[in-house]
């Protein structure tokens, strides 16, 4: 087995451990919410939400964020902190860009591959596209995502979650007056393309902040 395959297996194992604590965490907090109503509000089948709450099904990272937001509790209150105490497998790799920095989230997370992007005020990235679906969760600040040849753009505020077809050209901008921090989930190829592009000045560079919506 290659080193990359071994690291991937370790990441999946850590992800499973973290996700397996989500349902018990809900029960530990005494959550007995209106499952059907909450499921409708976040676009999740009530049966799926019930299985997650019972611990019979592991949530994806995006599902966990939506559920936590819907019941008004921080994600770390339910499943524990995203970053566990050091046990010899914590990893955090920083990739600097002129407009901010990307950080690979530590191994012990709910699902493999999420990255944390810090965007400086009035800055953004030049677009790229890749396979699969990409999701964004704004943990601080305000951002706007532009979509290539389409005229529409989506503005996201703190604690908002959004997903889209990543085969459409897309670029993320900070439209606030403070640093913005965004969690991004994407395919392995998407992550490779994004982080490779950060090293190529001909493809990524700071851009003027788009007009406020």
What does this structure look like?
With 213 residues, the protein is of the alpha+beta class. It folds into two domains: 22-79, Orthogonal Bundle (434 Repressor (Amino-terminal Domain)), CATH 1.10.260; 94-197, Jelly Rolls (Sandwich), CATH 2.60.120.10. It is built from seven helices and nine strands; from the N terminus they run ααααααβββββββββα. The protein has helices at 3-20, 22-28, 35-42, 46-54, 61-70, 75-79, 188-197; strands at 94-97, 100-104, 115-119, 133-140, 143-146, 153-156, 161-165, 171-174, 180-185. The protein has a six-stranded antiparallel β-sheet with strand order 1-2-3-9-4-7, sandwiched between helices. A three-stranded antiparallel β-sheet has the order 6-5-8, with no helix packed on it. It is elongated, with a radius of gyration of 18 Å. Mean pLDDT is 70; it is low at 82-95, 105-112 and 197-213.
Notable characteristics:
alpha+beta, three-stranded antiparallel beta sheet, 434 Repressor (Amino-terminal Domain), Jelly Rolls, 213 residues, RmlC-like_jellyroll, RmlC_Cupin_sf, disordered C terminus, six-stranded antiparallel beta sheet, 7 helices
Question: What's the helix and strand layout?
Answer:
Elements: H1 3-20, H2 22-28, H3 35-42, H4 46-54, H5 61-70, H6 75-79, E1 94-97, E2 100-104, E3 115-119, E4 133-140, E5 143-146, E6 153-156, E7 161-165, E8 171-174, E9 180-185, H7 188-197
Antiparallel strand pairs: 1-2, 2-3, 3-9, 4-7, 4-9, 5-6, 5-8
Helix pairs in contact: 2-4, 3-4
């Amino acid at each position: 087995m290659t080193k990359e395959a071994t690291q991937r297996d370790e990441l999946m194992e850590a992800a499973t451990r973290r996700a397996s604590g989500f349902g018990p965490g809900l029960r530990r907090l005494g959550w007995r919410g209106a499952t059907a109503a909450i499921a409708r509000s976040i676009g999740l089948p009530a049966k799926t939400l019930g299985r997650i709450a019972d611990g019979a099904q592991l949530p994806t990272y995006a599902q966990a964020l939506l559920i936590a937001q819907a019941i008004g509790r921080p994600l770390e209150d339910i499943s524990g902190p995203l970053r566990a105490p050091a046990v010899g497998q914590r990893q955090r790799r920083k990739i600097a860009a002129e407009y901010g920095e990307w950080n690979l989230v530590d191994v012990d997370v709910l699902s493999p591959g999420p990255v944390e992007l810090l965007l400086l005020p009035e800055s953004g990235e030049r677009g790229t596209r890749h396979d699969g679906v990409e999701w964004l969760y704004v943990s601080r600040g305000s951002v706007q995502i532009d979509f290539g040849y389409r005229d529409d753009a989506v503005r996201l505020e703190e604690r908002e979650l959004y997903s889209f077809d990543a085969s459409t050209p897309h670029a993320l901008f900070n439209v606030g007056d403070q640093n913005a921090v965004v969690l991004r989930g994407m395919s392995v190829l998407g992550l490779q393309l994004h982080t490779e592009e950060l090293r190529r000045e001909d493809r990524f560079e700071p851009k003027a902040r788009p007009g406020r919506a």
